[in-house]
Specification:
DNA polymerase, domain 1; Integrase; Integrase-like_cat_sf; three-stranded antiparallel beta sheet; 4 domains
């Protein structure tokens, strides 16, 4: 019926309605851009150019022309993102035409529907997608404040400079795919497995940052690249632990060595408390409560960032008193014997382990603590007191057992 009526209208009536004729009108419509054809009641270029009265004028689909009291005008797109309204600036009306504003708005709405932050999407459209190297340096700058180890801060970026930047450093982060990740990893994956794993982890972190910032979308190619890499066959090599039967000889050697007295005290104090070398070397005397036999390490000095309370055994307390007496005017409990203004160096503690199977100080006596913990039943009466003094009952059991074991084998 509709088709019959459509063709029954005389051509001269079409000309009267459309002016230049139906065919010429359809031709002009097809020449318009998609953004122009979508609107019938939106703004016009003349309106945008001439409007000076302050206000907000809608073009449709969330696009507004905002005119300030000064007469300056700008484009603002209003979109919904994660249930919240976001206003995204698209530029001034003097430099961005109506058609350009509509096209920009259309692109940002598409990205918002895909789950990307429209503000970040606008920044990407305006500034372009940053290169991988720029993103890497941004991530490094943001994270390095949380890393206490200065060596780790430098190495994190250095590995990328050596192994990642030459291949993908100047690529836009949204252009990096599985092939590019494989290309940079394959030369070192088998030759330097540990380094390769670190590079992979850091590249993955940077790409995740790019996704979170709206610079790219989709799966992280690093997770897919693992499927194309050969499996590492190297086994983890743990640090050696000193057999407990060798402890007496080792401690006798320690006490009779030519090392400075403060170094020998610090080493034994470290082992008794199962502490990290940095916790012992940098410990100020103010952390030790000699009356309560407690060592309170603030969170700022702990790897986990939480305060740690260590109950000191009688031998550990004697060591702390002896160290305090050696340098009564120094704030550190274990200062350097050559320069008491500075802490004891890591090298001095490691020197003993270097002479005995190259063990780390805080891992060398792992078996000593294991054996000591097995003897806890003989000292169960003391356990409640120790448990109440430390956040970790496990640490308490170890400390009780190792003190008694220490006294039995070392004297």
């Amino acid at each position: 019926m509709g088709a019959v009526l459509f063709y029954a209208i005389p051509n001269e009536l079409w000309d009267e309605v459309w002016g230049n004729g139906f065919d010429s009108h359809m031709s002009s419509e097809l020449k318009k851009s998609p953004s122009d054809r979508r609107r019938t009641n939106g703004l016009s270029a003349v309106f945008v150019r001439q409007k000076k009265a302050p206000g907000r004028y809608g073009d449709g689909n969330g696009l507004y022309l905002v005119v300030d009291r000064s007469g300056a005008s700008r484009w603002v797109l209003r979109v919904m993102y994660e249930g919240r309204r976001r206003d995204v600036g698209l530029g001034g009306a003097s430099t961005v035409t109506l058609a350009e504003a509509r096209d920009k708005a259309h692109e940002i709405r598409k990205l918002a529907k895909l789950g990307q932050d429209p503000v970040a999407a606008r920044r990407t459209i305006r500034d372009g997608v940053p290169k991988f190297e720029n993103c890497a340096r941004t991530v490094h700058k943001a994270r390095k404040a949380a890393w206490r180890n200065g060596k780790h801060q430098a190495q994190w970026l250095k590995t990328l400079e050596l192994y990642a930047f030459p291949t993908i450093g100047q690529m836009a982060i949204n252009r990096i795919g599985t092939a590019e990740v494989l290309k940079l990893l394959l030369p070192i994956w088998s030759a330097k497995p540990e380094t390769a794993r670190r590079v992979l982890q850091r590249v993955s972190t940077i790409i995740d940052y790019g996704t979170a910032a709206g610079m790219r979308s989709g799966e992280n190619p690093c997770r897919l690249a693992i499927l194309g890499l050969p499996k590492h066959t190297d086994e983890t090599e743990h640090f050696a632990a000193l057999p407990y039967v060798e402890v007496p000889a080792f401690i006798a050697k320690l006490r009779n060595s030519n090392a400075a007295e403060i170094t020998k005290l610090a080493f034994e104090f470290l082992v008794l408390n199962a502490s990290r070398s940095g916790e012992v070397r940098l410990a100020p005397k103010s952390e030790i409560d000699f009356a309560k036999a407690l060592w309170t390490i603030p969170g700022a000095r702990m790897k986990g960032g939480r305060e740690h309370i260590v109950p000191l055994t009688p031998r550990a307390l004697d060591i702390a008193r002896a160290a305090r007496a050696l340098y009564p005017d120094r704030p550190l409990l274990f200062p350097s014997p050559t320069n008491p203004e500075k802490p004891l160096s890591t090298w001095r503690l490691r020197s003993f382990c270097a002479a005995s199977r190259s063990m780390r100080p805080h891992t060398a006596f792992a078996l000593v603590f294991a054996i000591g913990a097995a003897r806890k039943r003989a000292f169960r009466a003391r356990l409640p007191k120790w448990r109440s003094l430390t956040p970790s009952s496990r640490k308490s059991k170890l400390l009780i057992g190792v003190e008694c074991f220490w006294e039995s084998v070392v004297g």
